[in-house]
């Protein structure tokens, strides 16, 4: 067999120890390594790889700031002192211009788009830890600008939020990539779903902060919520020197001994660090046999295009399923019904925690698709209930469905979006693919936050619950797309996903397709 043929044959894998290229006849090396990963249950993985789990939680701290910033922006708009210092007084009431409110809510998303796309360049050169360090420094600068913004200097406040938004995009992108690369197969779904949990906890924390400071009558009514964001970048900067680098990044840089030390540290003395390092190296070589380069353009070439589209669409479908409409305007509906929304939020946290069990028990595709179905039904029910004069009973019913929606979303398409987009990419293009995913997330959130107020607000279209019909229709179309194109990544190693895409296996068959026969031969 020629050298070129060997290069292009995925069954030909370089022997790490011998420095030669040999076919895997009885049992391919990648199949043996995959079998080792498949044999590990989540509880066993938690026991042996507890350090990996804890470091993934640590790296997800930045995602908390994503949720905090998104929620605290809307909260500050209701703080009288903030409205007084950055708006104007009309008939004795502090007023913020609608155009400035829109800019204030949207500018972080614009920064997040730049942050997500910059991850590929930064992390490929500086590593995952380096990207988090850069994001932490940028976040501190952005928060400093917001904190020291003088009264009525609105442009300076927007610049601060824009800069901080860049950091937030980096934080969330890097968290997903790091969790996917550091976690063993049995924990990968749990740790990547944890990204969304941190986002929800950030929203919860911001609500508490606004309640605690919003009634103040000095500048610290809004400066304190800004200042608290300093805590988490500082925690990250303190812990980063002790955090292990991604072994995938180390192997790609040719630092094999360091990669084995990291793997041994993450998995403990009972694991075969050399075997895992070889699996990483040969997976990378397998991907190199399909494509030599790893640029953003490569994300949209060949089979990688399908993977990139999935990483983008999971966030498009979150918005199509009306998350900003239902959850972003839940306070509006609860006020109409006359009760608080604390319990609804708490139920969402419970749903996200349950995902830690369900993501491995039922799989990614099952939860995502049925979550889309359930959200579609709830949205349409909200629209039907609103028909007529939207009396008090209708308002109560819509509020109840909002609570149900929150639970359904947080146990399905909310966290599963972050799981799928981190797992679906090739190892070679992961930082770039997840960056594109976060760019899409930010763009869709930006559009939704601009458009939905005009649909809901009483002084605009005043559609209220009728907006459920709009998003119900979008969610229905999204449900059909998800059935055909959302793959099952549960229990699939990186090299197995590579082979499934290269063999052009339909996404709905990923979970059942057999790549190897009983003797380990590739079909």
TrEMBL record:
It comes from the Eukaryota. The chain crosses the membrane at residues 52-68, 103-123, 130-149, 155-178, 185-206, 226-243, 309-332, 344-360, 367-388, 400-421, 433-454, 466-486. It catalyses: myo-inositol(out) + H(+)(out) = myo-inositol(in) + H(+)(in). The keyword NADP does not apply. The keyword Membrane applies. One of its GO terms (molecular function) is carbohydrate:proton symporter activity. Residues 1-23 are annotated as: Disordered. Keywords: Membrane, Transmembrane, Transmembrane helix, Transport. It is found in: Membrane. Residues 55-490 form the Major facilitator superfamily (MFS) profile domain. One of its GO terms (cellular component) is membrane. It is a multi-pass membrane protein. Belongs to the major facilitator superfamily. Sugar transporter (TC 2.A.1.1) family. This is Maltose permease.
């Amino acid at each position: 067999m020629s050298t070129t043929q060997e290069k292009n044959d995925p069954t030909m894998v370089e022997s790490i120890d011998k420095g030669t290229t040999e076919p895997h006849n009885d049992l391919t090396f990648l199949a043996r390594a995959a079998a080792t990963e498949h044999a590990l249950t989540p509880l066993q993985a938690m026991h042996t790889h507890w350090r990996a789990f804890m470091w993934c939680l640590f790296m997800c701290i930045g995602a908390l700031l994503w949720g905090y910033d998104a929620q605290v922006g809307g909260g500050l708009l209701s703080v009288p002192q903030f409205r007084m210092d950055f708006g104007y007084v009309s008939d004795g009431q502090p007023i913020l211009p609608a155009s400035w409110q829109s800019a204030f809510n949207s500018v972080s998303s614009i920064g997040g788009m730049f942050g997500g796309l910059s991850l590929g360049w930064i992390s490929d050169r500086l590593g995952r830890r380096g990207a988090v360090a850069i994001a932490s420094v940028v976040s501190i600068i952005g928060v400093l600008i917001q904190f020291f913004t003088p009264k009525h200097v609105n442009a300076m406040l927007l610049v601060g939020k824009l800069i901080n938004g860049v950091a937030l995009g980096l934080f969330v992108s890097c968290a997903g990539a790091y969790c996917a690369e550091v976690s063993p197969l049995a924990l990968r779904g749990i740790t990547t779903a944890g990204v969304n949990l941190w986002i929800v906890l950030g929203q919860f924390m911001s609500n508490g902060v606004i309640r605690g400071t919003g009634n103040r009558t000095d500048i610290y009514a809004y400066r304190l919520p800004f200042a608290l964001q300093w805590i988490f970048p500082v925690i990250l900067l303190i812990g980063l020197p002790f955090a292990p680098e991604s072994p995938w990044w180390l192997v790609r840089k040719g630092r094999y001994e360091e990669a084995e030390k990291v793997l041994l540290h993450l998995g403990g003395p009972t694991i075969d660090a050399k075997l895992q390092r070889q699996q990483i190296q040969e997976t990378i070589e397998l991907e190199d046999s399909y494509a030599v380069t790893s640029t953003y353009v490569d994300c949209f070439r060949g089979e990688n295009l399908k993977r990139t589209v999935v990483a983008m669409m999971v966030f498009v479908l979150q918005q199509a399923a009306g998350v900003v409409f239902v959850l972003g305007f839940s306070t509006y509906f609860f006020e109409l019904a006359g009760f608080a929304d604390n319990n609804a939020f708490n139920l969402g946290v419970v749903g996200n925690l349950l995902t830690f069990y369900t993501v491995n028990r039922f799989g990614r595709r099952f939860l995502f698709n049925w979550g889309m179905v359930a959200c579609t039904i709830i949205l349409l029910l909200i629209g039907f209930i609103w028909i007529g004069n939207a009396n008090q009973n209708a308002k109560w019913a819509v509020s109840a469905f909002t609570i149900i929606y929150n639970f359904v979303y947080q146990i399905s398409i909310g966290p599963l979006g972050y799981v799928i987009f981190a797992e679906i990419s090739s190892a070679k293009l992961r930082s770039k693919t997840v960056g594109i995913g976060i760019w899409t997330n930010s763009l869709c959130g930006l559009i939704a936050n601009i458009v939905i107020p005009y649909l809901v607000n009483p002084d605009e279209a005043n559609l209220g619950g009728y907006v459920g019909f709009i998003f119900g229709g979008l969610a229905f179309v999204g449900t059909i797309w998800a059935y055909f194109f959302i793959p099952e990544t549960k229990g699939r190693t990186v090299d197995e996903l590579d082979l499934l895409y290269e063999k052009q296996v339909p996404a709905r068959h990923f979970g059942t397709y057999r790549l190897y026969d009983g003797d380990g031969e590739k079909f």
